Amino acid sequence: MMRILPTAAIVAALVTAAPALAATSSQLKSGVERNLQRLSIDVDVDTLSTGQIAALHTILTGKRTQSDKRGLAKSVIGGTHSLRGILFDNR
Hints:
By secondary structure, the protein is mostly helical. Helix content is 70%, strand content 0%. It has one domain.
């Protein structure tokens, strides 16, 4: 009986936090998309993983030069945007 209450409290906290996390994710995606457009990088952010979105946010809001941001962002995105993608035709 004593274990049921803490477990129920944790489950309730996770269920109520889910909508807040979804809204943050949407806001984060739109911010990353806007910053990528400023760097003239055309990519559909809906196809990126959560880890890629987080990494891009960190890179794009950091204190680096525009060319550094562009290079790092292309590396995170991968595919034909990166040297690896060009060399190995990773589309």
